[in-house]
Amino acid sequence: MTEMVFGTMPARVGEPVLPRWWRTIDKWSLSSVLLLFGIGLLLGLAASPPLAEKNGLHPFYYVERQALFGFVALAVMMAVSMMSPSQVRRIGVVGFLIAFLGLMALPFFGTDFGKGAVRWFSLGFGSVQPSEFLKPGFVVLAAWLMAAAQEVNGPPGRLYSFVIALVVVMFLALQPDFGQACLVLFSWGVVYFVGGAPFFLLIVIVGLAVVGGLGAYNGSEHFARRIDGFLSAEIDPRTQLGYATNAIQEGGFFGVGVGEGQVKWSLPDAHTDFIIAVAAEEYGLILVLAIIALYTLVVVRSFFRLMRERDPFTRLAGAGLAAAFGVQAMINMGVAVRLLPAKGMTLPFVSYGGSSVIASGIAVGMLLALTRSRPQGQIGDLLIKRGR
Q1: Given a cut of 50, is residue 234 above it in pLDDT?
Q2: Which residues lie across from 111 on neighbouring strands?
């Protein structure tokens, strides 16, 4: 009966790594990510030349850099996806510690590049944003602690992970980067919920988040300005939201045509935070729906494959990574259509940005590794292991 419900995939003795990887990987999710990267390059060809011209660079400077970042990200994603869950746990915890140290160093060595938030380390030839790399590591660390809490005489992993989440959110809020802070809290909430958290406790946590948001509104001019702009009945057509809204309306169902869009000449972040506006204007609702479908496919397939997983850590970490991936995409697109206040969050694999695309490659590589088909064994083996 166990095999009928969960299925088994016995290991093949002496099977090479690559054939075993290809046989067990979720090919639909892998294909969706590759398509998203291809769409990102296509949109970069449309969105980035105006910025390159403004900065005195050749037209496809940013597209070439994105292609380079993307190929590095895809190589990292493939390498990580070949790892076992225990290896994913190790690199996740180590990666979190390194990224967190970087996050703490930002107030002393970071820069804001004139955007009002100290989020980056300038390296001269490029920049690094620690919070992008911190997210997948945090999800893995939280899942490890909560899985350990389920063991007999295990540590209070839920409490430890909650304290770590609060510390991370505090450092992110100091930048300020409330978008990433909300995403970290959301990811922790998903892992906690999948781990069996009481629903009432989740409601209390949501209430605390609302109180924290009110405090941030009253204490941060940067945060208050964005919320006021979101709640305003009128949209200033000279703002980024105004340009993006107009572009989406102009695009209609089929778009105005390849290269015919105008929003890329007005939006300073057309190739990053608002790249979906470029897609909507030039290619119309058709491409936007295709992009949404690809993100949805990755998330839904990951959840379905994780439902068959019996290892607590794999189930919790995979659910957190899939939810964070999908919600980040939802937040980016929600900002562009004014369903959410501006948060400065990229669209995974589509927006321009080295830190963003490489960190997304690491996160999705972990997700692909955790959702690979593997022998599950007998349910009694798990019960015997826990009883030891």
Answers
A1: yes
A2: 120
